Amino acid sequence: MQESLIFYISIFLASAVLMRIGQKRKNRLFLLISLLIPILASGLRYNVGTDFKNYENIYNGIVPNLDLKGYMTYGPTELGIYFISNIGIALNFDSWFMFTAFSALTILPVYYGIKNFNLKHPSTAYLLYLLVIFPVSFNAVRQLAAMSMVFLSVSLLYKRKNIAAIVPFIAATLMHKSSLILVIFLPIILLFIHKTTFKFREIFSMFVIGVAVLLSGSVIFSTFMQSSILSDYSQYASTSNAAAGSILILKIVIFSVFLVFIIMGKLQKLEYSRLFVAMSFLEIAMLVIGLSSVDISRFAMYFSVFSLLFIPSITEVFTRQVQRPILLLVSLYGLIMFFMQYFVLKGSDIFPYQSIFGGF
Fold first, then answer.
1. First-residue to last-residue Cα distance in the chain
2. Residue 148: what are its φ and ψ, rounded to 5°?
3. What's this model's pTM, rounded to 2 decimal places?
4. What is the mean pLDDT of each run of 10 residues along the chain (360 residues)?
């Protein structure tokens, strides 16, 4: 187990360092390697992740024996995994092809989204993503790919490439239909996407929206989950785990820090700050509703990537001399979260690590 812990931390740190070097030297080879390391670590794993056997069964047992019409009557009915699996089967590859493809679809959209937003300290943001969110993809394979593509889609909206933003959104719905949540919250996203300051009435409006979401959220999302397009996921409506409350408190503290700096005007020069704070607020709303339903809390994933990747940007309120030690503390926060969530609490069942070539 300890060997696996060292393995994960080493490859994630190495990926972030290589990305830092690649960006500083404008070296595409270093950038490519920084992306390939986690993609291959996830793609070439064996019997690692809560749902590994289920996905193996889809690849080896279900997809080869069903045509498209038969698969659509099966479940889950998203076509992304069906098409990806058929490509791998046609090439005579084992299930590692499917896992590697989904891993790439989880890493690459986030990388290009970070570039589109032009986030401050992107290598630290990338490290936080690898430590805190990426391991969830070892379990929620399709949903994390969908989340990453929704993030890319919003980043393209931010770049005012509205037509281009449709492509990753459609791809996200092919991976996991829960990504349709973007449509529900699109008006809020468009409201906050291009301005850099919060006026009092906008802060008030945000809290009114949040209260409305909290009061009506359980009914809305229960109806949404029971609709025909999401009926396959109704089994997720169950009680959340005991750690949910602690995570929620932590998220509220982080959001409060964001909001204070925004109100003080400390982050005005960051054009994306207003959007990221609004998305952080929506994440908290989803987590509050999700205290009574695991799957509703999983909708928060679509917003959690924004709050997490925004953390390194708050160092911009400090002088350059102070930024480096604070970034080190941010990295330490990511390491502690990884240790607690995945090693201690055994989230996503990623320990011990084993690849198709052998394990620790």
1. 8
2. -65, -40
3. 0.89
4. 94 98 95 98 96 93 86 76 95 96 98 96 97 95 96 95 95 91 80 66 60 55 52 45 70 85 79 88 80 68 93 90 92 95 92 88
